[in-house]
Give the backbone structure.
Amino acid sequence: MSVQTLWELSLISWYQDQWLRSSTLTSGWANNAISGNQTLTDQPIVFGQDSSSITSWFTSYGNRDITAVEALEYSSNTYMVQIALKMMGTPYSPNMGVDLKNLDSSMDKLRATFCRIRLGHSKQELIFQLNLRAILLKSSLLRIT
């Protein structure tokens, strides 16, 4: 593959990631999980004591408060996970367990928002759902309540 092709693929991937993040923010606003340019802490997300953490660019330097705009600018994974958790009715706290009874309704809310902005169709919707479920599983949400 040429350098140009790799660069183009990288750029496409970046745009897709930003599209998903901006759609997640939109869903958070639409479902009252966040409001305005709300500040959340960009911090490693750890579920249970034996799980690996979900991190963002800044988390290697410690915790940092960031706004919704900064979360999009810095591609904060942890901000987006916190939105999804709030939509499930379980705001993040370190080493928490997660009650998955609201997972399907939260996915429906995300899907509805994504559909309104033409992202929640077929392949993209499936990829988003699989990614969210993979994050939840990877993070050892074994303490299902």
Observations:
- The helical segments are 3-30, 68-73, 77-87, 103-116, 122-138.
- The two ends are 48 Å apart (CA to CA).
- Residues 139-145 have pLDDT under 50 and may be disordered.
- The CA atoms of residues 50 and 140 lie 7 Å apart.
